[in-house]
Amino acid sequence: MKYFTDIPAIRYAGEDSSDHLSYRYYNPQQKIFGKTMEEHLRLAVCFWHTFRWSGHDIFGDQTFDRPWLHAADPMQRAEASVLAAFEFIEKLNLKYFTFHDRDIAPEGANVRETNKNLQQIADLMAVEMERSKVKLLWGTANLFSHRRYLAGAATNPNPEVFAYAVAQVKQALDITHQLHGENYVLWGGREGYDTLLNTDVRQELDQLARFLIMLVDYKYKIGFKGTLLIEPKPCEPTKHQYDYDTATVYAFLQKYHLENEFKVNIEANHATLAGHTFAHEVAYAFANKLFGSIDANQGDPQLGWDTDQFPTHLNDIVQVMYIILQNGGFTTGGFNFDTKLRRQSLDLVDMFYGHISGIDTLARGLLIAAKLVKAGELEQFVSKRYAQWHSTLGQQILDGKTDFTCLSNQVLQEEIKPTPLSGRQEMLEHMINGSI
Ligand SMILES: [Mn+2]
Questions:
Q1: Ligand 1 centroid distance, CA of 415 (Å)
Q2: Cβ contacts of residue 59 below 8 Å, gap of 6+?
Q3: Are residues 355 and 406 in the same domain?
Q4: Has residue 112 been placed in a domain?
């Protein structure tokens, strides 16, 4: 069964193409600084929003009618969704996908049956991956939808829920390993609280750390070579989530000596919900050797929730791409589309328009950022701004060869009088827009 027969394979047609079912900027084999665009971007389609979400929101039910979800039997629906997903990814000419355990296979009557369902679908995925050469960027476990997780998984007040979550993540990691996943993601959707009135924060943080420590042990035990990623988000569904942002995750990891075992999966929309820019989270992650992967979905500045829209804000993407290029690019990570169509975008072709639009935004952002790197003007400006730190004074401070007493004496003796210099923000903003 094929689902997208009336849609052509999506190919690069160049900037002047008027065909909306083509890429204007994403030219997979085009080389930029010695790597192809495909290797730079490592684009992935997510399984859950794209093939399992029906358009429902908190005010309304299903709006989409997906043919692969028509069968009465949930396992038949699961198998049909896998076939639809690989057909879609191949039509877009992409090389990666991502999945949640519960979105690829339904829960059974008990854990044994649930695990059997999941294994059966994973085996079908393995066949499709072999046939299509599409790879797994990352897998993850859904520890937030079922009511057993209403008060969290690892941070639940009931250790039986913790144990249940361990069993679920063990199998999700086993399957990610089987499918040669390049990363494994943890998003703590309900690892937080709704009210402090019923919550022991210190206890919950210790529980979360135990969970992650055991996961790391298990990763080495089975020889999983991928990167473990934590996806920060400040709130939603809970009022407060412990993985608030990259800085919070970094502090938590250091407290429990886990900073070398995890990196972050930064989502654009989660960054803005935390009161940051997307670029801030990426820069902060690189600054602390924590950069792993990206969920490229953006939010809406007027809507205060996680709208998961396809990335279209070119200026934001240029800044992010510039930071990624300056720092050497992805290693095991990539750009995942953890994106949802708007619920009025009913047609199958809208799935293509959404992804093409997002992919072209990233590709165009990459091209512009490469131009900025090549021109070197921004880099020179920044390095000049810090140049005085190479002076004797700057080096003494950085090398720890001075102290409060020495420095204050030096200020008095040499009558140090610093001269303020312009930060040139407007010129730099003008320069970025000029390159777009
Ligand atoms: Mn995400």
A1: 54
A2: none
A3: no
A4: yes
- 266 CA distance to ligand 1 centroid (A)? 8
Rg, the chain, Cα only: 24
Q: For position 244, which CATH number holds?
A: 3.20.20.150
The residue assigned the tokens 């730099």 is: 428
| 293 and 399 both lie in a single domain | no
Owning domain of residue 73? 31-375
Whether residues 312 and 400 fall in one domain: no
Look at residues 350, 375, 400 and tell me which one is the last residue of a structural domain. 375
Structural domain ending residue among the three candidates 332, 348, 375: 375
Residue type, 77: R
313 with 417, same domain? Answer: no
Below-70 pLDDT ranges, the chain: none
Q: Do residue 85 and residue 147 come from a single domain?
A: yes
Look up the pTM and report it: 0.97
State the distance from the centre of ligand 1 to the C-alpha of 53, rounded, in angstroms. 14
Q: Which residues are catalytic?
A: 100, 103
Q: Given this model, what pLDDT does residue 273 score?
A: 96
Q: Token digits for 177?
A: 């390993």
Specify the pLDDT at position 304.
Answer: 86
**Cα of 321 to ligand 1 centre, how many Å?**
18
Ligand 1 centre to CA of 185 (Å) is 9
| Cα 295 to ligand 1 centre (Å) | 5
Q: How many domains does the chain have?
A: 2
> How far is ligand 1, taken at its centre, from the CA of residue 333, in Å?
13
Cα→Cα distances 189→9, 28, 146, 154, 376, Å:
36, 34, 12, 11, 41
311, 420: one domain: no
For residue range 179-235, list pLDDT tens digits in order: 999 999 999 999 999 999 999 999 999 999 999 999 999 999 999 999 999 999 999
Tell me, yes or no, whether 13 lies in a domain: no
Whether residue 381 lies inside any domain: the answer is no
